[in-house]
UniProtKB/TrEMBL annotation:
Domain of life: Bacteria
InterPro entries in the cross-refs: Cro/C1-type_HTH, Lambda_DNA-bd_dom_sf
Gene3D superfamilies reported in the protein's UniProt record: lambda repressor-like DNA-binding domains
This protein's name: Helix-turn-helix transcriptional regulator
Organism: Jiella pelagia
UniProt xrefs under SUPFAM superfamilies: lambda repressor-like DNA-binding domains
Coiled coil location: none
Pfam families registered for this protein in UniProt: HTH_31
Domain (HTH cro/C1-type): residue spans on this chain: 13-67
Length: 118
């Protein structure tokens, strides 16, 4: 599946290349890749690495931000709380684990009593 950022960066690469009046082969030569690789970048099929993107900035006379201008990130999903962590998993000695278990039981009893109004 195509990453939306890669597709956007690729489209901006194509736009900058056309404004500079360069062919895919000419830009590829400047970036050290084939014209076919430039085509793959432009259609978003391949991700442009940071170093190569930096060389593209110089070859096309655009700032790095140019490639991300106008990009709208997809809406983020709701962040879920982390899963519960087991209580004191690193306690090695059985007595300590039992003491922690008893403490938890007492806390739960107190909460239950407070909720029931006792």
């Amino acid at each position: 599946m195509q990453d939306p950022v890669d597709a956007h960066v690729g489209a901006r690469l194509r736009q900058a290349r056309l404004m500079a009046k360069l062919t895919q082969e000419e830009l590829g030569l400047a970036l050290g890749v084939s014209g076919e690789r430039i085509r793959q970048y432009e259609c978003g099929a391949e991700r442009v690495g940071a170093g190569r993107l930096n060389r593209a900035c110089k070859a096309l006379n655009v700032p790095p931000t140019y490639f991300f201008e106008g990009y709208e990130a997809p809406a983020t999903r709701e962040v879920l709380p982390p899963p519960p962590v087991s209580v004191a998993p690193d306690l090695q000695d059985r007595q300590s684990r039992l003491a922690v278990d008893r403490l938890i039981e007492k806390i739960l009893e107190r909460i239950k009593d407070e909720r029931s109004g006792s």
